[in-house]
């Protein structure tokens, strides 16, 4: 009976995320947002029915999701208003509200909050959606063989999605092994497999962000100092400054060894492969003017001269900030950045309150949120309707929900249920 139950909940989680990846793929391929609306509608309607009829459900959804909904709605309104695309703004807002409603329906299920089911789901996705398809296309397992592979046959649609999935598997298995004391075969396999695949992707930054988020969580959990929690906000910027510094290191020490350690590109390509350092310098110089005309972002969208131009590249890989906070500034100005910080402060305030009531309770979603902060320093996660945006939203929603359940004292995790 237990094995049947385990399979049921693992399958539910797996089906949910695979289904989401497929919907995103179809929308990006067809550029038809009706697919999103139709795909998310069943779960969203069920959540709406529960919202209307169950008082506790309504209360928890409002407390856990309201600030996220407000932030996302303002963000999509501003970015599409600046681009004069009001209809697209409405579609995007409806999609994200439906997604939050359906995610809450999943997260509110007590069993589906158990870390083992989420780990099993991401192990399945990592093997069958990421690893095997990439291996079939490249036929190569050398380090860097999967780097930035984009192929129409893949379900993952950006260069971030596949490494992000593998990183979440690493975090889940490490957290379960270290804090739930489960050094079992499946966790050990997941840890070694995820690190190996990330190296094949040549995603050292993802490994660094994963390890650092676990280390930071351990320090916060042991020292129990509230101010340390808010220091996690610095993760939005620290790797960014490391990459800027690395440019000058390469300029001072023009050797192949130094170049291979601090960045991927040749010593003569000082701006680095994606133009991150150049874009950050340009955007920061504008940000620190504190000019009121940028309060709501750039009318018409950010100027192209902020980014490098790479001939022969398709898509918009180079035309964004490669930093979530700075991209928010470009899309919605100082105003959306303020709302973003308010949303994070509220979430971490609830975490501190929850820890005060139950200091022994581990919370995996804290690790995931901090990991996404660190990753946000060199990647744009909140942008368009891509998998990274939905993972960011899912993680923050789960983080809020666990904290609020602890505060309300109507959800007491057992020894088995340590998330």
Automatic annotation (TrEMBL):
Regions that span the bilayer: 7-28, 34-52, 64-83, 89-109, 121-141, 153-172, 184-201, 230-253, 325-348, 360-378, 384-402
Keyword Transmembrane helix: yes
Entry keyword Thylakoid: no
Name recorded for this polypeptide: O-antigen ligase
Protein keywords: Membrane, Transmembrane, Transmembrane helix
Source species of the chain: Pedobacter planticolens
